[in-house]
Input
Amino acid sequence: MFKRRMTRTKRTITILVALTLIVTGQLILRQREEVDLELYPQLIPQVLPAISTDQSVIVHDPYDYPGEYYKAQLHMHTNKSLDGKWSTETAVNAYYEAGYTYLAITDHDRVTLFDGINDPNFVIIAGEENTVPWPFWPLGAHMLRLFVDSPQRSGNAQTRISSAVRADGIAGIAHPNWSGNLTTGKWTLPQMLALHDYTLVEVYNPHSNSRKDTATWHELIRRLGPEISVWAIAVDDAHDENLFNRGWVMVKTEGVSEEALKEALLRGSFYASTGPTVVFGVEDGVITARIEGDEPAEISFIAGNGEVVYSITSTEGSYEPKGNEGFIRVEVETKRGKRAWSQPFWLEVGEAL
Ligand SMILES: [Zn+2]
Ligand SMILES: [Zn+2]
Output
């Protein structure tokens, strides 16, 4: 009799646990939306179509704005993060001394403020590195929320992006191929396509795989097309001085201000770098890359379909788009493996002038 009651109790508990797991599982799955890739086809075909000679090509140049280039770090931690090892003051001073003009402090799930440096030519941006809990905090993937004065601790990924944008901030996807957080830290292409209103994607972060992150970003913009801009950034994601000054962006702003930085980040007037200083631009319909200094590097012009359409080892390279490439982006790599990434130059084909 007693034994039978025990068996029944056990069975009830098992059923209850199973039901709870199913319900939580469903809720968790709904938190992490992803699209069917077939519904988001590659807008630029694998084999580039021929274009007729009586058509003209307009090259959209994200760098065609007045201003100077300034160095910016958009992702770093202080000891206000559980895994951060240097004080806010030490960290900020290190960036200031290294010649950075813009610095976003992005501690985990909190906003850290610092006003210890009084220099109008050094701008600290409030932000956070937000954990999108999956299946529960602290597991899950990370995103950057910049120009926000408070962290967002609830909601799914889209809620977290939208609240940043509503607060006049900018959101970005951190280290898409980071295999940390027991592999819950990854952002897949279908997940990134399910989200909207974010502006940045890391193509270089020392904790992630930069080749894979670059490929993910390339596939993303190839499917989003020219109307939805998602730009590439390189970051340190430093937690102490060891990963300091490894990856940054050079941003073209007119004067130095938080507003100017925000505008430039939204329109793509910046490039990602782990070393080379490059001037990217368009001259008479030709896309050019000029490297500062006399160390030659491999300059590759990559079409929307992923094909390297032209490559040269030099301090300068240029490529005249045929018009069928969808977009052209430029990658630079020095002999020592230091790299720079331009944003895409989107092409528009029109009637001949
Ligand atoms: Zn992270
Ligand atoms: Zn981080």
The pocket of zinc ion (ligand 1) is lined by residues 129, 142, 174-175 (CB under 6 Å). The chain has a mean pLDDT of 94. Residues 33 and 191 are 6 Å apart (CA to CA). The longest strand covers residues 123-133.
